[in-house]
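Async update (no meeting this week)

Hi team, since we skipped the sync, here's where things stand on the single-chain job. The sequence we agreed to prioritize is pasted below, unchanged from the tracker. I ran it this morning and attached the output directly underneath so nobody has to dig for it. Comments welcome in thread, and please keep replies under the output.
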Amino acid sequence: MTLTRETAAAKARELLHVDVTPHPHEELESDLVCGGFAFDGGDRAAIIGYDGGYQTSMTELSGETVDTLIVGWLAEQRHRHGTDAFAVEPAPPPTHPCPVCGAATFHSDRYPASVCAECQQRATDRDGRRIVGYNEGPFGGLVVFYAESPSGTQSEIAGDVLETGRCWIDGIECTIDEARFGGVVIQRVEVH
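Output:
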């Protein structure tokens, strides 16, 4: 007997003891070996598998969503059936050309002019002294040191860079700031 959405919905209602609504999911429904149908019952959810198995979750209590339940189901079933749970290659991260050297670097809409890691290592102050930026602590803040100074490696704060938020890479003016979710971001200043 072929499992239909209606038959699966009846089984989900029986298991969850509530009325359910279908939660269509292309990957789940198109995997004829490991897939099935998903249903949302408000604070609980169920997946009814094509192979007769099922899984339920008290989503409100467990902190799951129907989608996380589906991901777990597919990983577990693909492992059980000996198929690759990660057969679909993830999309490569977006990149843009580094505005200093042209190398591909990770792209974020928040930092569209960010420089690559190699260029960031060549950042200097206005006078050409190499600088290194860090988060001040676990809760953020920016601190910038001179890479080398008479008192020792990274022992002197680059006050002018901190005050202006400006640095240079190969003579190209850039900004330096803390990144939103940690770390330091250097971006080329737009040429107008």
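Quick observations from my side:
Residues 173 and 189 are 6 Å apart (CA to CA).
The longest strand covers residues 131-137.
Reply here if anything looks off.
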